[in-house]
Design a protein that fits this description.
about 100 residues; alpha+beta; 5-stranded mixed β-sheet; 4 helices; 5 strands
């Protein structure tokens, strides 16, 4: 198990594209709020400026070394998966579309 800062390489290991909108949202919420969301967990201590992100079945841990890195990571996920929408709107749109009404 390694701790890495290359979030694009880490995201390649996670493969968000194949798991659907729920994984994207879970990763985003985990990094935003901290704690476990779905298969992701983000730990941050209030006195530290680092965030550590883990994903089930991925050996490497992702370290976001500053608040600026964390904000960039969140913006990157949003841009890559949500296009012009913000994360919450994108999630609720996909959630509504997946219902069998």
């Amino acid at each position: 198990m390694n701790t890495i800062t290359d979030f694009e390489g880490w995201l390649d290991q996670v493969d968000l594209g194949g798991e659907g909108y729920e994984d994207v949202y879970s990763l985003y919420r985990s990094v935003t709020d901290g704690g476990r969301w779905g298969r992701f967990e983000c730990k941050h201590t209030p006195n530290d400026t680092k965030w550590f992100v883990t994903a089930d079945s991925v050996d490497d841990h992702l370290m976001l070394a500053s608040e600026k890195a964390r904000d960039y990571f969140l913006a990157y996920i949003t841009k890559e998966h949500c296009g012009d929408m913000e994360m919450e709107s994108w999630y609720y749109y996909h959630h509504a579309m997946s219902k069998d009404d």
